[in-house]
From TrEMBL:
Name of the protein: Cobalamin biosynthesis protein CobD
Keyword Nucleus among record annotations: no
Assigned protein family: Belongs to the CobD/CbiB family.
Record's function text: Converts cobyric acid to cobinamide by the addition of aminopropanol on the F carboxylic group.
Topology term for the membrane: Multi-pass membrane protein
Parts forming coiled coils: none
Gene transcribed to yield this protein: cbiB
Residue ranges of the TM segments: 61-80, 86-104, 303-327
């Protein structure tokens, strides 16, 4: 019964978030769950990450910070779910709306589409401005093809960790599962970097984020492959081949799966050497197609993304129906 409720919540959350997103006025008024989690991470970083401590002690402090973050976030989500589920359909609907705030289908589409629009309307400068909102690399180092590839790579990777992963953990563990995942992923993005301040303290967050993203990254690649089979001009066969050949060659244990699938499906090369700040990061290419991506390729990627999101919704709804029938 608990699993069927989680899957029903997932199905409703995906539909609600795709339809409405997160209203900008609400963000201005109260912020967003991720910003609340971010404030907690900042406080833990400020209070527990002492530069005078040894590397080992700072790593241990990072483990403690992650445990505190997960404990607080999970407890709040568990209490909310426990209060809402007994209310019935109205409580389930509210729970789905809350869970939908942890999924980013609509906002990801808008941000990536803005890059294509920027390139078409304002040329390279417009594309650079738009892509700077979604990637960490230096936009001034990117030509038009680099901007387009960066947007498509961001779409593929964020489809995995911004949509499929929270959806996976929501379906498996309800609101607490999705909230715990989102806390982990936010911690990785804030402190999981190999910088002098965070190499030790952020180690636990980075490694745990790698672990919890493993199933979703593989599922994302599968969704992109199936979506490619439904699109004229995309290749499911090449997507599958790129995943098998390239995904494990990526410097990230997870990002290579959706990026390789997207690259193969669209006949592109993604990833490869990239500049973050002033640092050149060497990475393997995903896919063996052309590197000269354009605004049109971003729009092709978005079409695949929309189909893959529909497939995810169908999978969630079908699983919810099966779980409900079994629980009867």
């Amino acid at each position: 019964m608990i699993l069927s409720c989680s899957l029903i919540t997932l199905s409703l959350a995906l539909a609600a978030e795709a339809a409405f997103g997160y209203p900008s006025r609400l963000y201005t008024w109260i912020g967003h769950p991720v910003t609340w989690i971010g404030r907690l991470i900042k406080e833990l970083d400020r209070g527990l990450n002492r530069e005078r401590w040894s590397f080992g002690r700072r790593r241990a402090a990072g483990v403690l910070a992650l445990l505190l973050l997960l404990g607080i976030t999970g407890s709040v989500a568990w209490m909310l779910q426990g209060a809402l589920l007994p209310v019935g359909p109205a409580g389930l609907a509210i729970l789905a709306v809350l869970a939908g705030t942890l999924i980013a289908q609509r906002s990801l589409h808008e941000h990536v589409a803005a890059v294509s629009q920027g390139l078409r309307e304002s040329g390279l400068d417009g594309g650079r401005r738009a892509v700077s909102m979604i990637v960490g690399r230096n936009p001034q180092s990117l030509d038009e093809a680099g901007v387009a590839r960066a947007a498509i790579e961001s779409l593929a990777e964020n489809f995995s960790d911004g949509i499929v992963a929270p959806a996976f953990w929501l379906g498996l563990g309800g609101l607490p599962g999705a909230a715990l995942y989102k806390a982990t992923n936010t911690a990785d993005s804030m402190i999981g970097h190999r910088t002098p301040r965070h190499e030790a303290f952020g180690w636990a967050a980075a490694r745990f984020d790698d672990l919890v993203n493993l199933p979703a990254s593989r599922l994302t690649a599968l969704l992109v492959i199936v979506a490619a089979a439904l699109h004229r001009g995309a290749s499911a066969r090449n997507a599958w081949r790129a995943v098998r050949r390239d995904a494990r060659q990526h410097r990230s244990p997870n990002a290579g799966w959706p990026e390789a699938a997207m690259a193969g499906a669209l006949g592109l090369r993604l990833a490869g050497p990239r500049v973050y700040g002033n640092v050149l990061v060497e990475d393997r290419w995903m896919g063996d197609g052309r590197a000269e991506a354009r605004a049109h390729d971003i729009e092709r990627a978005l079409a695949l993304y929309r189909t893959a999101c529909a497939l995810l919704f169908g999978l969630a709804t079908g699983s919810a129906l099966v779980a409900w029938l079994i629980a009867r």
